[in-house]
Design brief:
alpha+beta; Glutaredoxin; five-stranded mixed sheet; rod-shaped; Ubiquitin-like_domsf; UBX domain-containing protein; FAF1_2-like_UAS; ubiquitin binding; UBX_dom
């Protein structure tokens, strides 16, 4: 085949591939990265990124097949992780994308940390399109600049080390072969784009840029979904808190009303018992009927004013119920006269000896109003506490 026909064939291959350009996501099995790492003997590369933990393996190093005669052989002391880098630079010079000289698992960790995708290049030295692709496309200024700015690049020879495993897993349809992969976890990757066959620098950059744009759009959509889900969860949590607060308030009100009802019943029973014991029993009369009638009438007239003075009036009896809630959840209720002052409530609260209160003030919740030292001389009737009120202890 002549050089012109070879170029035509290369262009035809490129056009055929781009017409069926693969754009679907393909997830590799999670065992690929782990299996590839185990297939290589543990060797320390000359340059390894900081913070990467590389597992040690104790299997003997495999016997790699020899490279074709067209590919220069690096010195034997070069670690396997740097084999592709050394061979590529010896063949095509030092102007090329920065390929990390380490295992694929380490490159995935670097990409995850930097928030980038991985550009994978599988190098087949014996393929007729490899030479023009590497010199004309992969080592061109625009491709080198674009890859170094946007990707973490990694390369391998298809017949050696992890290159063999990646070729078996990705199954390239033709060479040159490039792929854009993204780290999913420490043991799996996702193939976002495949480039098979020779392409020009502008075509390669266009494909890679389109991949970046698509992933950016997908990422924004995912972030929008996450924000919407978080907003819905926040609204649901807020609604649940509101319902819980409403239930708690209803339970507290019901408990207070029940306590008030029991206290009123006890007070009525106590008052009835006191009235029954204080009533004097009639003595047998030794007077004549007429005389007894006159003395009874006289006694009634004399004792009537005294009776009016001893009967408790609405203004003096303890008819104001005050419920006090303490910070520890304890509740105490006491009856006061509506002519008593707020100072009496403070005295009563202090006499209970509830621990951990310190300085405090009395607060009415609804409508909220504070009764501090300036209101100590206000009587309960003027404060609106009759017939009952609930006060909270607010620590200062």
């Amino acid at each position: 085949m002549s050089s012109s026909s070879a170029r035509d064939g290369a262009g035809g291959s490129s056009r055929n591939y781009r017409s069926g350009f693969a754009r679907n996501l393909a997830r590799l099995p999670s065992s690929i990265v782990e299996g590839l790492s185990r297939s290589i003997a543990r060797r320390a590369p000359r340059s390894r990124p900081q913070g990467i933990q590389v597992p040690q393996h104790h299997q003997p190093p495999p016997q790699w097949p020899p490279l074709p005669a067209a590919t220069p052989t690096p010195p034997p002391f070069v670690p396997e992780e740097l084999f592709f880098f050394s061979a590529f630079e010896q063949q095509y010079g030092g102007h090329h994308p920065f390929f990390y000289g380490c295992r694929l698992s380490e490159v995935l960790a670097i990409a995850r940390r930097e928030g980038k995708h991985v550009f994978v290049y599988l190098h087949d030295p014996a393929h007729p399109y490899t030479e023009p692709f590497c010199r004309g496309t992969l080592c061109s200024d625009v491709v080198v600049e674009f890859l170094d700015a946007n990707f973490v690049s990694w390369g391998a020879v298809t017949g050696r080390g992890e290159g063999s495993g990646m070729a078996a897993s990705l199954q390239p349809g033709s060479f040159p072969f490039c792929a854009v992969v993204a780290p999913v976890s420490s043991e799996s990757i996702t193939v976002l784009q495949r480039v098979e066959g020779p392409v020009t620098p502008s075509e390669l950059v266009e494909m890679l840029q389109r991949t970046i744009d698509e992933q950016r759009v997908a990422f924004r959509a995912s972030m929008a979904d996450d924000h919407a889900a978080a907003f819905r969860a926040s609204r649901a949590e807020e609604e649940e808190r509101r319902r819980s607060a409403l239930r708690l308030r209803q339970e507290q009100d019901a408990a207070y009303l029940e306590s008030l009802r029991k206290d009123q019943e006890k007070e009525r029973s106590k008052r009835t018992l006191q009235e029954g014991t204080a009533r004097p029993k009639p003595k047998p009369s030794t007077k004549y009927p007429g005389q007894a009638g006159r003395e009874t009438s006289r006694t009634t007239q004399i004792r009537a004013p005294a009776h009016k003075e001893t009967v408790p009036s609405h203004t003096t009896e303890a008819n104001t119920k005050v419920m006090i809630r303490f910070p520890n959840g304890e509740r105490r209720q006491q009856s006061f006269r509506h002519t008593d002052t707020i100072r009496e409530i403070y005295k009563y609260a202090n006499s209970l000896g509830i621990p951990g209160i310190g300085k405090y003030q009395l607060v009415r919740s609804y409508p909220r109003k504070t009764y501090g030292h300036q209101q100590l001389e206000m009587n309960l009737g003027d404060a609106g506490f009759h017939p009952s009120v609930t006060l909270y202890i607010e620590q200062l």
